[in-house]
UniProtKB/TrEMBL annotation, chain A:
Its main location: membrane. It comes from the Bacteria. This is Putative ABC transport system permease protein. Keywords: Cell membrane, Membrane, Transmembrane, Transmembrane helix. It comes from Marinoscillum furvescens DSM 4134. NCBIfam families: perm_prefix_2. The chain crosses the membrane at residues 98-119, 362-388, 409-436, 456-482, 503-522, 769-793, 813-837, 857-878.
Automatic annotation (TrEMBL), chain B:
Signal peptide: none annotated. It comes from Marinoscillum furvescens DSM 4134. InterPro entries: Tscrpt_reg_PadR_N (IPR005149), WH-like_DNA-bd_sf (IPR036388), WH_DNA-bd_sf (IPR036390). Pfam families: PadR. Gene3D superfamilies: Winged helix-like DNA-binding domain superfamily/Winged helix DNA-binding domain. This is PadR family transcriptional regulator. Residues 22-89 form the Transcription regulator PadR N-terminal domain.
Length: 892, 110
């Protein structure tokens, strides 16, 4: 005997009664009650109630639904009738329908594409099942006086530190990337990026294995994990597991055994690799000092927090742990360790970039907003057209009201029309958008991937219904709101609806013109960036990455690579089309030139960029010298100790007459400033020109510095100018010479102008995306305008006829029609100006060098808008003016 | 004449109806199936299968036997019809015939 009888949920029982066929109801209900009763004995009441509700829902099958009159009179049947009427009305006004559907479809294409882009950007790294517990460590060192170092790459030491001192962490893994020459058969190596991972890396992150051991695939020092596409690249159809690949560690190639193959890493992953080896190898690759160092950073460190622990607890105690280990070297608060959620990495620009590139969140939001705006324009389009149509429909409404239709029913009818249109548009738009994804990628340089998920269907349906309701609600309200007698008597619609229509049209114009001017201004800025004189000559310059024959110390590597470069130079110099051969430690267009820091004589911390070159560098790039002299060819003194500064460096160090002086540090080796070069933009135009020191021998400078930051490889790049007419020829010459000298090493080279263009790839992509949205919004506006013009022409047919009879010219009739919209157009253009100014000023803040926005931009966008508007109007105005007035006036 | 065919779950339910004789209604069938076949089946699936079987004429039903835990609702008891029996025999025969043609030892497939 139970003490407290529990009852099944009332709503579920009621729902069952509502839908179930009465013939089946009794025993079905009885069965469910019986099972519920039984469930109550074994499970908690709440659980039993949940089960009961679930059964009721599951019992909702076609065979169990009652098919009687009650259902037929219900809303369901009513809406199918509504849909039928809607379909008829839409069919009758097919031009309007086509314009409406096309407008919304285009809006939806834009919305879906932008939505996909935003979705992809905002779901970065969310596919890991433990994502909520994974954090990346960062390190902020702040020693005062601007001597701050903020990194999301950390000391190698952090892995063992976190493991020993933080019981809050279930696992700690590191991820690093390095370049290694890789070969399968030793006859030809290619330099590949290889990830160095902690052995238990795959316990934290979900990268599914296709083949091989899922258990500790990197447990051995010489284990290798390969991606599917790289397995195909190196082994074709062969099963890669168990095969070996050779990687060049120090001087010789060492075989690595493939233990597992993972599926290709999706694009929305911050961690990207195709080859991964175990970081147990650090022991061999690195100096033991580096492994224990606190101030040298390399890999990213990820922690998996225990299920019951909190990251805040760990964060709180970091200071204590740090003080326990290096309390003698640093003060409290100088060496800060923090953690950032994994899913936060991709769109957070406050934490510095680690190994993976990040996106600008503002761009993502802007694109999302643009997608919504364009969809809004499309909705407005429908609304304005529907209001226009209401003149025609008014009589129908009046008739229905007289016959006893209530307001709710009428609203439902008009809404079902707009929902029908929106759903059809949604269907076409989504299919088209997905089909257009490759085109969109090619056009904008975006990297979209579409994979179908069932939720998308639900989202599409929801958005479709929402769009339908939003765009249909206003016309439905005004149509059903008006008094019957007035509708039946009056021929025109109420003045109030005219007012709303005008406001909406103005909004639409404003958004469209805003988009036009923004994309024009962006285009101007990007053209400026790409054509600005950078202060050096980079046309048709090829940069070849040189390799070192050793993997030892940095200086030895640089020496070895420089020797290789000289070998290649002598061969290349034999070709008459090749000129201006030179080497430099960094090439233009690559970020992260060596940044050195030292304390100056007053104790202030100073930083400068360092470029190691040969004596021909300034000549090769035609960089002008403003004071002193450049490097003399073959001068031993210059090779050893002469340095050049750029103007920014002279100003930064506060040197009055720099020639013959030294850098203001204590410990530098023997060196002397022999000249000053004019500032040239060696970095992207996002930044001001930074202080730069150019030398042929970096040794003396390295002696005096306290800090180095290098994100680009410092190995020399050989650069030459190709004066021939065909660039393909340059490639052939280079490949031949390379083959002759280094047959076992893969050649890697690029054109400098391309690298420089790439610095603005993000901006160029944004501009292209905005341009696509602009074109789409213009199209939508054109359709709206077209529909409105047709309406106006139709409703004023008689007026036009009479005017013609009295003697109006074609131009006067055109003017009459143009006047209908011109005020809204002008107002729209005017309103868009301040908004555009504000938005674009924000965007331009990102650049150190930028264009003036200028009046011309607004004039041209206004011109475009007005031109397009008149083009649309003129066709119908022309038709109306050609119409025989007899025809329009005779019919009554 | 088109021959009615029968699905796997339908066959199982039909067999159970036959086995339970006079005591076959949805809940007992569910219990029997869970016990004998060790399958987790939803009650709603049983209902819809029974409805289908009745429509095809393999079972007939009658309403009786209300109890307290059923909130006074009667049960729908099902009985196997001759047509239902025939379809079970048929499917058994087909299976047996095929089964006997299996080679005794499956060396050839190794």
């Amino acid at each position: 005997m139970r003490l407290q009888p529990t009852n099944p949920p009332r709503w579920a029982v009621r729902f069952l009664h509502w839908y179930c066929d009465p013939d089946l109801l009794e025993d079905l209900e009885g069965d469910l009650f019986e099972l519920f009763d039984r469930k109550c004995q074994t499970a908690s009441p709440a659980q039993a109630r949940r089960h009961f509700a679930w059964w009721v829902l599951r019992s909702l099958r076609w065979s169990a639904i009652k098919k009687n009159n009650v259902l037929k009179n219900n809303t369901l049947m009513m809406s199918s009738l509504n849909l039928k009427v809607a379909a008829r009305v839409l069919w009758r006004d097919w031009l309007n329908t086509v314009l409406n559907i096309a407008g919304i479809t285009i809006g939806i294409i834009c919305f879906v594409l932008m939505g996909l882009y935003v979705w992809q950007e905002s779901t970065y790294d969310t596919f890991h099942s433990k994502k909520d517990r994974i954090y990346r460590a960062w390190l902020l060192e702040d020693y005062g006086e601007g001597q701050t170092f903020f990194n999301s790459v950390t000391p190698i030491r952090f892995e063992s530190l976190f493991e020993s001192d933080f019981p809050e962490f279930e696992r700690v893994v590191q991820y690093d990337q390095r370049q290694f020459p890789v070969t399968r058969t030793q006859d030809r190596s290619i330099s590949e990026r290889v990830a160095l991972l902690s052995p238990d890396f795959f316990e934290v992150f979900d990268f599914p294995f296709i083949a091989g051991s899922g258990k500790a695939p990197l447990a051995g020092k010489y284990d290798l994990v390969i991606s599917k596409r790289y397995a195909e690249k190196y082994f074709g159809d062969l099963n890669p597991v168990g095969q070996t690949l050779q990687l060049q560690l120090d001087e010789q190639f060492v075989p690595f055994t493939i233990t597992a193959m993972i599926s290709d890493i999706p694009k929305n992953s911050s961690i990207q690799f195709d080859l991964a080896i175990s970081n147990l190898l650090y022991e061999d690759l690195m100096n033991p000092r580096v492994l224990q160092a606190w101030m040298m950073v390399g890999p990213e460190t990820y922690v998996l927090v225990n299920e019951n622990s909190n990251i805040a607890d760990a964060e709180e105690k970091t200071q204590d742990v740090v003080m326990r280990y290096i309390g003698e070297e640093v003060n409290r608060g100088e060496y800060n360790i923090g953690f950032q959620p994994l899913t936060d990495i991709h769109l957070n620009t406050e934490v510095p970039v680690g190994i993976a590139p990040v996106s600008n969140p503002v761009y993502v939001y802007v694109l999302g907003v643009i997608g919504l705006l364009v969809l809004l324009i499309a909705c407005i389009n429908y609304t304005t057209l529907a209001i226009g149509q209401s003149i025609k429909r008014a009589k129908e409404v009046g008739m229905r009201k007289i016959l006893g239709a209530n307001r709710k029913g009428l609203m439902a009818q008009y809404l079902s029309e707009s929902v029908l249109i929106a759903l059809v548009a949604m269907l076409i738009g989504t299919v088209l958008a997905i089909w257009l994804v490759p085109v969109f990628n090619r056009l904008t340089g975006a990297d979209l991937e579409y994979t179908f998920q069932w939720q998308h269907v639900m989202v599409c349906l929801a958005v479709g219904v929402l769009v339908g309701v939003i765009s249909g609600i206003y016309p439905a309200v005004i149509l059903t709101n008006t008094r019957i007698m007035r509708i039946l008597q009056a021929s025109g619609s109420s003045p109030e609806s005219h007012w709303v229509r005008k406001v909406m049209l103005t909004c639409q114009f404003t958004i469209t013109v805003l988009l036009i001017s923004s994309s024009l201004i962006m285009r101007k800025q990007i053209a400026f960036l790409q054509s600005k004189d950078l202060g050096y000559d980079y046309e048709a310059v090829v940069a070849v990455n040189m390799h070192s024959d050793t993997q030892g110390r940095m200086m030895e590597q640089m020496e070895s690579a420089r020797a290789n470069a000289e070998l290649l130079m002598t061969l290349l110099a034999k070709h008459p089309q090749v000129a201006d051969l030179t080497t430099a430690s960094h090439s233009f267009g690559s970020a992260g030139w060596a940044l050195l820091g030292f304390p100056d004589k007053q104790g202030a911390f100073r930083q400068f960029r360092l470029l190691t070159v040969d004596d021909n560098y300034l000549n090769a790039f035609q960089i002008p010298i403003v004071a002193g002299r450049g490097f003399e060819a073959k001068s031993g003194l210059d090779k050893r100790q002469s340095i050049l500064l750029n103007e920014a460096a002279v100003a930064y160090f506060g040197l009055e007459d720099p020639i013959g002086k030294k850098l203001p540090g204590e410990n530098f080796g023997e060196h002397q400033i022999i000249g000053v070069v004019k500032d040239f933009h060696f970095q992207s135009l996002h930044e001001e020109v930074e202080p730069l020191v150019i030398t042929q021998n970096p040794m003396p400078l390295f002696e005096g510095i306290s800090d180095v930051n290098v994100f680009d490889s410092m190995l020399p790049k050989l650069m030459f100018k190709y004066s021939g007419s065909q660039l393909v020829q340059a490639q052939r010459i280079l490949e031949e010479s390379w083959e002759q000298l280094f047959p076992n090493v893969g050649l890697s080279y690029h054109f400098i102008d391309e690298a420089i263009q790439r610095q603005y790839a993000n901006e160029a992509r944004l501009n292209k995306l905005v341009t696509v949205a602009t074109v789409i919004s213009i199209l939508i506006a054109v359709m709206g305008l077209l529909g409105l013009t047709v309406l106006v022409v139709n409703s004023r047919e008689k007026e036009i006829g009479i005017r013609k009879v009295i003697g109006a010219t074609r131009y006067e009739i055109f003017g009459l029609l143009a006047k209908t919209f011109s005020w809204q157009l002008v107002l729209g253009v005017t309103l868009s100006v301040p908004i555009t100014l504000w938005l674009m000023r924000q965007w331009l803040q990102d650049f150190a060098y930028r264009v003036d926005i200028g009046v011309d931009m607004f004039i041209s966008s206004a011109f475009i808008a007005i031109f397009v508007a008149f083009l649309v109007i003129s066709y119908h105005a022309w038709r109306a003016s050609r119409l025989n007035p007899v025809k329009s006036l005779r019919v009554e | 004449m088109k021959k009615e065919t029968i699905g796997e779950l339908e066959e199982l339910v039909l067999l159970t109806v036959g086995v339970l004789m006079k005591d076959a209604y949805a809940v007992t069938i569910l219990d029997e199936l869970t016990e004998q076949a060790g399958r987790k089946i939803d009650i709603t699936a049983i209902h819809s299968v029974l409805r289908r079987l009745e429509k095809k004429g393999f079972v007939v039903s009658e309403m009786r036997g209300a109890t307290a835990e059923r909130g006074g609702r009667r049960k729908r008891y099902f009985t196997l019809t001759p047509a239902g029996r025939a379809v079970l025999d048929d499917s058994m025969a087909v299976r047996t015939a095929l089964y006997h043609r299996l080679p005794k030892l499956t060396f050839s497939t190794i």
